[in-house]
Amino acid sequence: MGFEAKLRISVITNSLSGGGAERAINTLVNFLETSKYEITLVPVNAGRKDKIQPICRVIELNRPQDGGIFSLVKGAIQLQKHFLDFRPKYVVLNCSLPELLGAITFGRHQIIVVEHSSVPWFGRKNLGRIVRNILKIRKSLWIVVSKDLGVWSSRRIKPLLIPNAIDFQSSTHSTQKRLPKDRSRKQRLVFIGRLSAEKQPMLFLQIAQLSGYSSIVIGDGPLKYEMERFVELESLDCQFVGHVSDPWVMTDENDLLLVTSKTEGDGLVVAEAILRNFPMLVNDISDLQRFNLPQYFYCSDIQDFCRSISEYMKGDLLLALTDTFIQNLADSRDPRLIAGIWEGVLK
Q1: Please, what are the domains in the chain?
Q2: What residues contact 261, with CB distance under 8 A and at least 6 apart?
Q3: Is the pLDDT of residue 177 over 60?
Q4: pLDDT value at 212 more than 90
Q5: Which of these ranges, 53-62, 167-176, 323-332, has the smallest mean pLDDT?
Q6: In which order are the strands placed within the sheet that holds 188-192?
Q7: The whole model's pTM is what?
């Protein structure tokens, strides 16, 4: 009986950590059947390790987060060398920067592009169109992580739908009722995510200011200095803790999560909050409406946020989900299920 070689797959991702797209791909490579596949994960940018650490071979290109054209060319050369050495059958491109490097490197591999956002290539639309035209010419396969997403820049492409996986064993969650509030503790508003324009973290601070509650910001990004200046000038009671691999350890039963994004990809923070039955109020946008939360979880503007916050803090608004609602999400994001769908594509 002959030996059957493993199928080789290279997965190119922004970094080891950073957001839902990165954590989802770390989860996927850990659950793909190791007896069938030889996988390398290639994070382009340098950065911290994520709570979900990949068990496959990792080849870090270590490009600086704010690196220019020189570091990009260097990364492309490193990636091309990897392709020549490893000779993958499939190359998975996870987000915009990997798309760019995947478009300017070559090999006899099938490219798979994963679309995570309704607004990809944020701020770099022209470059994005060029890259995606190259990827279309190279007959790439396209995957979207939500039924509400299409392939930006081309309505003609019919993508496959494969939701992002969430590793429930490494992501402790509970469907039990939350503990009663300890009134001796301060009630806080919580922001979790990248401090960038699409997440609207400044809106979070404005809501905190108008509502009069203390707040905590968990995350890092280009708007951090502007936010810290605002907090200082307005004398707000706000704590910045930076990037934390597991942000939920920084929260307690007195906290209320606010999701102020104007666009979202998969919405990992919302998904994890649902699995924990963590109280939250979210911006009323189509990217978050796909979670089908009860309507009173959604807020249309800053006044709506403040009104709902006041009602929740006084105990007049219950932001809890049913066990059935939570279990339905858990079932749809089961890593074994998602890995099985991917294996069907890879065949």
Answers
A1: 7-168+334-346 (3.40.50.2000), 188-319 (3.40.50.2000)
A2: 193, 198, 199, 200, 283, 285, 287, 288
A3: no
A4: yes
A5: 167-176
A6: 238-242, 214-218, 188-192, 255-259, 280-283, 298-299
A7: 0.85
